[in-house]
Amino acid sequence: xxxxxxxxxxxxxxxxxxxxxxxxxxxxxxxxxxxxxxxxxxxxxxxxxxxxxxxxxxxxxxxxxxxxxxxxxxxxxxxxxxxxxxxxxxxxxxxxxxxxxxxxxxxxxxxxxxxxxxxxxxxxxxxxxxxxxxxxxxxxxxxxxxxxxxxxxxxxxxxxxxxxxxxxxxxxxxxxxxxxxxxxxxxxxxxxxxxxxxxxxxxxxxxxxxxxxxxxxxxxxxxxxxxxxxxxxxxxxxxxxxxxxxxxxxxxxxxxxxxxxxxxxxxxxxxxxxxxxxxxxxxxxxxxxxxxxxxxxxxxxxxxxxxxxxxxxxxxxxxxxxxxxxxxxxxxxxxxxxxxxxxxxxxxxxxxxxxxxxxxxxxxxxxxxxxxxxxxxxxxxxxxxxxxxxxxxxxxx
Length: 397
What we know:
Elements (H helix, E strand, L loop, with lengths): L3 H7 L1 H5 L1 H6 L22 H8 L7 H6 L14 H6 L11 H20 L5 H19 L6 H9 L14 H15 L8 H10 L6 H11 L8 H14 L4 H16 L33 H39 L8 H10 L3 E2 L9 H13 L4 E2 L8 E3 L1
Antiparallel strand pairs: 1-3, 2-3
């Protein structure tokens, strides 16, 4: 078996994200990093002198004028092919060592960290789209029939006037989407508070309990910085199970802890989009149930499932970021040519949210003007109509 740990530490990818890959290590030995010997060299090596002496062709005026501004250049970092091949699926996971799986996951999270820190203009729409995928997986695990399109309709088309009480409640399935949108939309530092966790309990279908939320905050606090990544992921699910919550809450907590550990401003829904083997699919059978003490082999298999699921979700999130980034670039290139009033506000809504309904109230834009603007954007292949309906249309990147 190829030692993926040595591949990860020997590649350029590990050199870019040493802190993240080191946090996924399962042993205390430190890597020995190569460096120049600590003695003065008489002159610079030829490999550093010759490239500087080679004359480079001067770019033409037309080529230089066609380049975008420096602020607009944010080329995504491609994921190496070896990393895609190394990420294990459910069938091949049993034959891999946990150290190899942890090393590959660290590299995948490092690549995702680079995508997050690029701060793309469409980052809001990207996180909301991932939240929609996580809500669809959660609904399926709960035995519900709503897919992504139905969940989107429940939240986007719900207004306060639609209910007799005047409150916009999208129903049990729609509340699942609101829980994941809370993870993707709220600042990461505000997610693991007692008030936020009490609201998340209610959105996942549990009775709100302020005392239990406070106990959960105290239990999660040591996982934020005092343990490794593997222990942090497993600890989030164990804490959720100890308080009687299902795996969806554990995935929500793990993603929030990951964002806080890496210093992201907003969390990225990852484990919620994955069906991780060995964790169950629904709620515990009774409130407060705690899984029995498992053997070392069972704990290792569970840790490998969590790590492999996180790696797969990270690569899928990177691919979605690149796809939405290309669509956002086309939309931003077209923005100066739009003559409709408040078109800049419409573009900002498209870049910051998963979907925008055609009847959205935007200052300075009438309903008819908004529909005409969306029709033009669709004809120019910069925006998609997401519902497939002739009425109550929904648009997004």
